[in-house]
Amino acid sequence: MRKILTVTFGILTAIGGFIDIGDLVTDALIGARFGLGLVWVTILAVIGIMTYAEMSARVATATHLPAFDLVRSRVGARLGLAATTGSFFATFLALIAELAGVALAFELLTSVSYLLFIPAVAALMFVLVWRIPFEIMERIYGVLGLALLAFVVAVWHLGPDWGDLARQVTHPPLPSGEGLPTYFFYAIVMLGAQMTPYEVIFFSSEAVEKKWTTADLSTARLNVFIGFPLGGLLAIAIQAVAAIVYFPLGIEVDHLSQTVMPVGLALGRVGLAVVILGVVAATFGATLETVMSSGYALGQYWGWTWGKTVERDEAARFNTLLLCLLVTAAAIGLTTINPITITIYAVFFGAVVLPFTYIPILIAANDRALMGEHVNGRLANGLGSVFLFVTLLASMAALPLLLATKAGL
Amino acid sequence: MKGDPVDGEARERQLDVARDLLDRLVVDRAGIVIGRVDDVELSQDDDGTLAVVALLIGPQVWGRRVGHRLGRWVEGIARQLRAGHDPVRVPVADVEALDPSIVLRNRVDDIDGALLAERWFRDNLIRRIPGGTSASE
Question: What is the value of pTM for the model shown?
Fold first, then answer.
């Protein structure tokens, strides 16, 4: 019974963990602009993140070393520094976006400006990191994240032309005024939103800190292989409601309220309240994950004591860093920088650094001396290589496309 | 670069310094993380054979090894902040094991200059926040 509960919570956390502010913003934005024409990217991203989340967890279980320990000891101090700072920066940008996302969600609920919520949420985050065991928080926001299913229900209630939607998936529409460079720019943005570097950092650090055994790894695999595809389905639902409501009218999405509005249209005020609760839960959890992952990236590279379960005064540098990150993220959020803009830049930069986070994992996973029986098999290597190629391609095309399309304008 | 025997016993062992020593995590006898091997100290015999004499740990050492403007900047700052403490130096005789992390025979309290920054933040910031002091103290 306990095992069933653990697996259920694990799947829920994976579903909610998949959806963060990056998804909520980019899925709505892209659904409004390209309909369901980029669903293929979601499908690709789900397979990609399943591959690398599993691989990084397996490496962590076999070696008892987390991602950024391996980056430095296998790739070296200089290249390792580049990969670490890149991933750190991408994750820190994501933290700012997630923090603003929680604040925005509260604004949607209360009509009080999100700027007032930013310092409050940051302070709450610190108190939680400081005092509350992580498992409890994970379970709470994992369960509440189920409220996001309102998106799926809304798709049904909106009664769309299913044939039309299906055609958008298989024959991506390119509306007049949109060029192929913009289409591919947003493909990269969506890839970065759904294959986040911090997921892999967080996962492998958890595996090391909890000293996962092969049994724990099997449970984690179950969570990943069921949870992430369900998360992907949720992401498609967010694109779909935007595609149904905004795309035919050519309405642009530039605010979080527009992401949830179609749910209100379909399911009324109750549905809207439920889905906003889901948004709060998802962004809340993502804020915690991004702040911890940013700390892990630096702490692991520099050789500090780190972790959720170590005493605060036994990981002084790590906890000081977490505090500084929350304060800085809140300060940047308070400059009234547009949360949508920072979200786009966060996921974009995430797409750029993604291959550099994955390469050390793929290398380590192939080292038989290091991995023993857990070394990569043909499937892991096949998929791993394919997605390394895909993410490298995206990373190289990212900057040129950003400049060519003026950030998708 | 090959190194000569590293552990205190008479066993001969070929080492690849870059692969087996550099950038590895170093922990003390109790499992407390001291840092990473940021550089190694070598000695040279009359016949030219190089041997690893000590492990060097710390941002000061890291900065000097990494070099370029960033490395030199970090080295400079670290040296200032450490105010006279030499870099953490672990003689190879103190190394107990090498895999997967480097484990030492001694405790971190016996190592000169170790965990200065960690302790500073612990005493001046973390322990000043309510709830920061663990029950074990």
Answer: 0.93
